[in-house]
Amino acid sequence: MKTLPAVNEMHPDYIRYIIEGEDSIIRRWLRAGADAWRLDVADELPDEFIARIRAVMMEEKADSFLLGEVWEDGSNKIAYDKRRRYLLGRETHGLMNYPFRVAALAYLQGGAAEDFKESMETIRENYPRPAFYSGMNLLGTHDTPRVLTMLGTCPDRTPEDRMARAAYRMTEEERERGFRLLRAGAALLFCFPGSPTVYYGDEAGMEGFEDPFNRGTFPWGREDRRLQKHFALLGQLRSDRVSMQSGDLQWLWAKGHVLAFAREEGAEITAAVLNVSTEAEELVFPWPKHLAMDVLTGQRFAAVRDKLHIRVPGMDCMVLIGT
């Protein structure tokens, strides 16, 4: 394509123009106030090119952040027959966490909580701690179908014809199912280690299959206010609670359709509890505080002998804070 010319990234003139020149693209925008760069399709860029970008970023702004778009486990990624070096200390600081999306959607669509835990423990084991705790976590992007559509529609009802998918609109039953599972998915997104990222309109209830059906205009005046309120509350909690930002991850429950984990920072604890089955589930797990309050409903639970006994409704979630 004429608008996407191929370049030799390692040519000295290109290096000067993009990275190392006194008025390079990287330097200019950092000086203008940018704090980070995201490298689209990092697989297409040589490791040395990425390393040079990071080196100049550290010169210009020591606390700036370099993020790479990588869809797989970045610790062992092979692209174009070469093992890549995204997370060895000289290249990116962190990556888009597509493995989180894959595991989260599999769980939300009825998969086993154990599988989600295992997938995330693999990433936690493979990634340096700073990369794990700064990963760009997401449920949907411009490259994927709308998350509400994925969670609400049944695979066997997805139209095979592209034009039919373009015209498809979810039924009230599908939207309600998608709404309930997306509420749980949002709690998972905002409570899990990493940087929660929301594709525009997901918080407003936008639907659509693959590109370009996932890129509709924002539904001004037709937003799903219930979802917006839920996302806003989770965003405010994330901003206010240090445990949700940097707290250590501890698994409380990962069995069948129920997933629970806690984030602890000092004396502060926040926990997410999800149940993706249609039936209520009961669970018991350790709790270091006297009480727990679900900030989504205001419901309170008393710990008995340092344990919480909780009944979670079907297709629902809780965000507990210790008091």
Describe the SSE topology:
Elements: H1 12-20, H2 25-31, E1 36-39, H3 47-60, E2 65-68, E3 78-79, E4 82-83, E5 94-97, H4 98-108, H5 113-126, H6 129-132, E6 136-138, H7 147-152, H8 162-167, H9 172-191, E7 195-197, H10 225-240, H11 242-246, E8 248-255, E9 258-265, E10 268-275, E11 281-286, E12 291-294, E13 300-302, E14 307-312, E15 316-322
Parallel strand pairs: 1-2, 2-5, 5-6, 6-7
Antiparallel strand pairs: 3-4, 8-9, 9-10, 10-15, 11-14, 12-13, 12-15
Walk me through what this model shows.
The protein is α/β, with parallel strands linked by helices and 323 residues long. The protein folds into three domains: 1-70, no CATH class; 71-244, TIM Barrel; 246-322, Immunoglobulin-like (Sandwich), CATH 2.60.40. 35% of the residues lie in helices and 22% in strands. It contains eleven helices and 15 strands. It has helices at residues 12-20, 25-31, 47-60, 98-108, 113-126, 129-132, 147-152, 162-167, 172-191, 225-240, 242-246; strands at residues 36-39, 65-68, 78-79, 82-83, 94-97, 136-138, 195-197, 248-255, 258-265, 268-275, 281-286, 291-294, 300-302, 307-312, 316-322. The strands form four sheets. The protein has a six-stranded antiparallel sheet. The chain has a five-stranded parallel sheet with strand order 1-2-5-6-7. Strand 1, helix 3 (47-60) and strand 2 (65-68) form a beta-alpha-beta unit. Helix 4 packs antiparallel against helix 5 and helix 9 packs parallel to helix 10 (225-240). The longest helix is centred in the middle third of the chain and has 20 residues, at 172-191. The chain is globular, with a radius of gyration of 21 Å. The mean pLDDT is 96.
